[in-house]
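Researcher: Watch the backbone:
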Amino acid sequence: MDGCIRENLKKGMAVKIVLKKDQKSGILTEGIIRDILTSAPKHTRGIKVRLESGAVGRVREIIET
């Protein structure tokens, strides 16, 4: 599934996000979605979410369970 489309994301899903500070290096942070912050239906760089850990970033991958 594509992390650039909001309807693909739901609270409680496992995802990998890129944090603002990691955008150049491309390091991904894994976690569970607590809040979906982007209100637009699509975003070219990924939908912005807040993880249960409190980390905020854009979804790069959705982890299939």
Remarks:
- The chain has a mean pLDDT of 95.
- Strands lie at 14-19, 28-36, 48-51, 56-62.
